[in-house]
Every structure is written in structure tokens, then in C-alpha cells.
Amino acid sequence: MLVCNYCGRNFKNEFNTCPGCGSTTFNRVSDFGEKVIKKPPEGGYVINVDNFEKSKKMANIVKWIGWGLLIFMITFDLPFLLGGILAGQEDLLFGLTFSITSLVVTIPFVIISIVLISISKSMKKKAQENILRVKKLAKEGVLVKNMPYKLVSSGTVINNQPIYCIQVEYENSSGQKIPLKSEPRYNNKLSNKNGTVDLLIDPDDYSNYYIDLEIY
Question: Which of 28, 48, 126, 149 is deepest in the core (most CB within 10 A)?
Fold first, then answer.
């Protein structure tokens, strides 16, 4: 493991220049076993929020699908409604039946589109909250490096490819082991040559954490 002589950041990977501060001088230390770092470097740890940004992009896609479906169905149904109203002037029962039939077909799709728009808002809000949370955690959290991990299914499949999460076991001050799972990883970078990951956690709130291949 490399430790930057200037900012004190710890790295599992090899760097010629510290990506945190730009220094070119390092000290090599043993990287055997887990290492707990309680004091964040000046400016906080570097956090990769790409997965949260991708969640926001997915939310935008869902939103536009919802709006597109809603606009299409309203545009599609409007002539039938107008036709039913006009027909109702000559034959009320026929016009009413015609309009109701068109609404019966359209309303389920309108409901689906509204649900999609609502889901997209929730997804985007959650992603933004996570970005703000981990950026705050980067300045206040405790870093645990070199943690063994396993991959667990997120339950999401994209292009017939399952999306996984990283799971670790964090041992708190009382010796209790707590399983912690990362957000779904969309970049497919789920392993490295060291076979370990890093955990950034709030020691006062174990539900507030972030897991990545390397945090520095």
C-alpha cells in the first residue's frame, strides 16, 4: 500500500502522482489485513458518484418515457372523445358509449404514465440525496481499507446482464458484525487484483456508509 507523504492518503493501486493532492512522493507500507483510518485528509476523501449520476440519468429516461406515453395517449384519445361528443348530438347513447369506450382504453395507460413519472421523481430525489450524503461522509467518515467482500444480486437486469452489489461485514466497537451492501454497480467494475474493497462509514450511524473498490 502507498501512503502519500503530503496529504496522507492511502492507496492500494500504484500511482506516480497522488490523485488527491498531486504529490509525487509516497511511503510504502504493509497492506496486510484491514486498516482503519479515523481522520479524513484535508478536503475529504475522493468519492466516485458515477453510479448515483447514472441513477439520475435512468430516472430522466423513465420520466421521458412516462411523459411520452401520457402525451401520446391524450393525443390518440382526443379525436375519439371529440367524435363521441359530436355523435352524441345525434345519438346520445351511441356518443356516450363511444366516448366511454375510448376512455376505458386510454385511462390505464395514463395511469401507467403517471406512475412512471412519479417513480422517476423518487429515483432522482434519492440519487441526489445520496450524492449529498456521501460528499458529507467524505469529510467526516471513518475509512476501512482492504475489506474482503462478496457480490450479491441487486435484483436488477439490464440488457440481460444482472447488476450486482458489493457486500461486506463491518465489525463495530462491540464486536458485532454488520452486513453492509453497496448501491447497484452499473459500471461492471466489481473486482480488483487485491480482492478487497474500502468502506467509508459514519461511526455514529452504521446506516450511513459508502463502499467502493478504492476510496482515498
Answer: 149
Question: pLDDT tens, 28-85?
Answer: 887 677 888 888 988 889 888 888 888 899 999 999 999 999 998 888 877 777 777 6
- Give 118's contacts (C-beta < 8 A, 6+ positions apart): none
User: Tens of pLDDT along 72-113?
Assistant: 888 887 777 777 766 667 776 766 776 777 778 788 888 999
Cα→Cα distances 172→77, 144, 196, 203, 210, Å: 59, 11, 19, 8, 16
> How many other CB atoms are found less than 10 A from the CB of residue 24?
11
Pairing mode, strands 142-147 and 150-158: unpaired
Give the pairing type, strands 2-4 and 10-11. antiparallel
Angle between helices 50-90 and 92-140 (to 10 degrees): 170
Each residue of 142-169: b (16+ CB within 10 Å) or e?
Answer: bbbbbbebeeeebeeeeeeeebbbbebe
The single-letter DSSP state of residue 212 is E
Sorted by sequence, the CB contacts under 8 Å of residue 185 that are 6+ apart come out as: 51, 154, 163, 164, 165, 166
